[in-house]
Specification:
13 strands; alpha/beta; 8 helices; binds guanosine-5'-diphosphate; binds zinc ion; 5-stranded mixed barrel
Length: about 325
């Protein structure tokens, strides 16, 4: 038996980097659960595990134990209804990469990403890549978006693979940490990762290759070690983030500035819609809480409500 870390998960096989430095394909033995939640993948990249090595023609192993996780990030499974997908575990920070242009900013994705991370008290960083494409007239808009997030305590970084602006800062925040990296396709995530893990050579795509949809690349998370210390976990192929494993109050409690302000709402289960004396709505009117965040909050809340409505109907 030897301990190691899961560095790749491909569905039925897991690659474990054992503490003696080997990378061993492993299967799982036994059933692993995540409380009441049904998970598509019981073992996540980042998991510390114990492995039984079987030496045959090729070396393979069996994961017999998952050590307790310090944290983990889950998302609604994109394929299996009512299942969640374990994205990664034992991480120090999470980064979302976005762009203002090419592709144009999806601020909803930032808020979904932050909502996914917030329950686990993991620091999150927002990286605006492709700053070389910014036009002078973008500055005001960019500044207003950046202040929404810095005002509520998130770190924001600007990078460009073209000019290499900000790449050193990006490298610096990764040093000696285990970092989960997400981003919708086209934002330059692979290019950024290649520039900090040069021997890697992840496949990148020319913009012209994007039809937006129907692109089949690998969708398996993978952990890479950085030369100067630290690891990153790349999560390819995330198109959107859904929350059917959330209750409505989970949404309200994990928009962090709403949660802080909600202590002054009249009702302690206030959802900040049309309830009287809602401190969150007052803060929006006063410009203390961003209207854009509120719009995204309502959109996610409605998704979750619709979901629960159909669940209840089915039970009757
Ligand atoms: P991914 O889907 O997020 O992994 O994106 P890729 O790394 O494949 O990049 C998508 C496209 O954006 C490619 O054509 C890259 O050359 C281009 N790209 C990546 N980073 C930058 C950047 O900082 N500036 C500009 N102008 N283009 C970039
Ligand atoms: Zn309220």
């Amino acid at each position: 038996m030897i301990d190691g870390t899961v560095i790749k998960s491909t569905g039925s096989w897991y690659i474990v980097k054992t503490n003696d430095g080997n990378e061993v394909p492993c299967r799982i033995k036994g059933k692993f659960r995540l409380g009441k939640l049904k998970v598509t993948n019981p073992v996540a990249v980042g998991d510390k595990v114990a492995v039984n090595i079987e030496k045959d023609e090729i070396t393979v192993g069996t994961i017999t134990k998952i050590y307790p996780r310090t944290n983990y990030v889950i998302r609604q499974s994109p394929r299996k209804k009512h299942f969640v997908h374990l994205l990664a575990s034992n991480i120090d920070q999470a980064i979302v990469i976005v762009t203002l242009r090419e592709p144009s900013l999806k601020i909803g994705f930032i808020d979904r990403f932050l909502l996914m991370i917030e329950p686990y008290s993991i620091p999150a960083v927002i990286v605006f890549n492709k700053t070389d494409l910014h036009k002078p007239e973008d500055q005001e808009y960019l500044f207003s978006i950046i202040s929404i997030y810095t005002n509520i305590g998130y770190k924001v970084l600007l990078t460009s693979n073209e000019t290499e602006d900000g790449i050193e800062n990006f490298r610096a925040i990764l040093k000696d940490k285990i970092t989960l990296i997400c981003g919708q396709s086209g934002v330059g995530k692979s290019t950024l990762i290649n520039s900090i893990v040069p021997q890697l050579d992840l496949r990148t795509f020319e913009i012209s290759e994007y039809s937006g949809k129907g692109q089949h690349t690998t969708t398996f998370a993978e952990m890479y070690s950085l030369e100067n210390g630290g690891q990153i976990i790349d999560t390819p192929g995330i198109k959107t983030l859904g929350f059917n494993h959330f209750e409505e109050l989970d949404v309200a409690h994990n928009f962090r500035e709403f949660f802080i302000t909600s202590k002054n709402c009249k009702y302690n289960n206030c959802m900040h819609r049309n309830e009287p004396n809602c401190a969150v709505k007052t803060a929006i009117e006063n410009g203390e809480i961003s209207e854009l965040r509120y719009e995204n909050y309502i959109a996610i809340l409605e998704e979750v409500e619709d979901q629960n409505y159909w669940e209840i109907k089915k039970d009757i």
